[in-house]
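Input/output pair, single chain:
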Amino acid sequence: MFILSSSGTSSGEPKLIPYTKDESDRRLRLCSLITPILNLHVNGLDKGKTLMFMYTKPEIKTKGGIIARTTATSLFKTNLFKTRPYNSSNNVHTSPIEAILCGDPFQSTYTQMLCGLYERERILRVGTSFAYGLIRIIKFLKNHWRELTHDIRTGSLHPKVSDPSIRGCMTRVIRPDPDLADLIARECADDNCEGIIKRIWPNTKFLDVIVTGNMSRYIPTLDYYSGGLPKASTIYASSECYFGLNLDPVSDGASEISYTLMPNMAYFEFLPLVVRDQREVLVDLVDVEIGKEYEVVITTFAGLYRYRGGDILQVTGFHNSAPKFKIIGRKNVVLNIDWEKTSEVELQAAVESASQLLQEFNTSVVEYTSFADTTKIPGHYVIYWELLLPTKGYSVNLPSDGVVLENCCLAMEESLNPMYRLLRVEGSIGPLEIRLVKSGTFEEVMNHAISRPGASISQYKVPRCVSSKPIVELLDSRVVSTHLSPSLPKWNSEFVKF
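Output:
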């Protein structure tokens, strides 16, 4: 047996989660319900195939010699997944198990994409675990379509795909197909990505991706890439616990998605966000109220006791006696792009660490805020700084070449949690950016905030993360210089603390 290594979404630090065979079987049984539920809402799924990009991470060992795996890796390495049979209720994935188990992201993605292109007319659903991942897949296609079409045209395999098991299995897939290569080249040669998913995989019925919580920000981009295909967010799960299923999985937006919690997966309790008499009182599953928001607390069969995962849920109704929940977000999280979660405390510590580099120049950070810029792929953190300077102008004390502020960007990244640094190294997140703004900018931000009806200057606090378009535009209009992290932050593959 082994233990699970979480993604670190609760605190930024990956955790070791107890895991048993009974827990593994329980999760697999829950997952086995996904396709039957989808079949109730989408006709003909048994007539085609699924292009689902799936990945594993390298295993590590604790000092005691116990294997630690991510949740996805633990699933894909089970014999049940490896030997899963084809039948009318279990669609065949185009991705070979050899590609899924390959730990190299390029080799795995390239092989899965190549297989999906060969099967383009039989693909009925396209997906990844999360919305952001699918957007990165489309970018991968746009960046590597020349190599892919060359392989399809010649029946060869890219030399960078060197894994022997992949090369062995792909001998059964690869064949020369000049017509298919021409089609892919026509669709990918220009910069027009509108509807590219439907153009490449014309029979796609929906996208199989999670678009709830923070992933909802990527819905407009997915609509652009897919021509507005429905999105199916099928399961609500984490490393610590599999919570439940979406019994009405195919929808157009995150606001319509609710998950029905399965009482057999764990013992669920709920902490109301609005407490009475300043007391935090746990509420049982059957006692939650429609419309109210709660933080979920779990006691699992594998050994977690009253564990606060940090997810904020809102009750939307009931399926029989089981409550249905909409994911609102995560507690105390201010920034996230992919799997990482950065809290306000972490952001504050990173700013303080970086601002130490300014001391020799007789300046410091007066105020700051941030936002997650996802207009480009990969997305990246943007930090707005207003500096205290003894004289007017930003070039008097700081070197004009911007090296100091670039080093501040890197210092911030070095101070952020291991999951952020891992995703930076892997290329899922772009370089952190500091945008210097003019003196008085944050006073203008405050004036804008308190100008709204009901706002009070006595209650105003500088937001440490902004998403309002007018606020972002105001900040950008005051920017005097921009600076990007010059290199990747340090990251040790043995990042789990034992």
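The CA atoms of residues 193 and 225 lie 6 Å apart. The chain has 16 helices and 24 strands.
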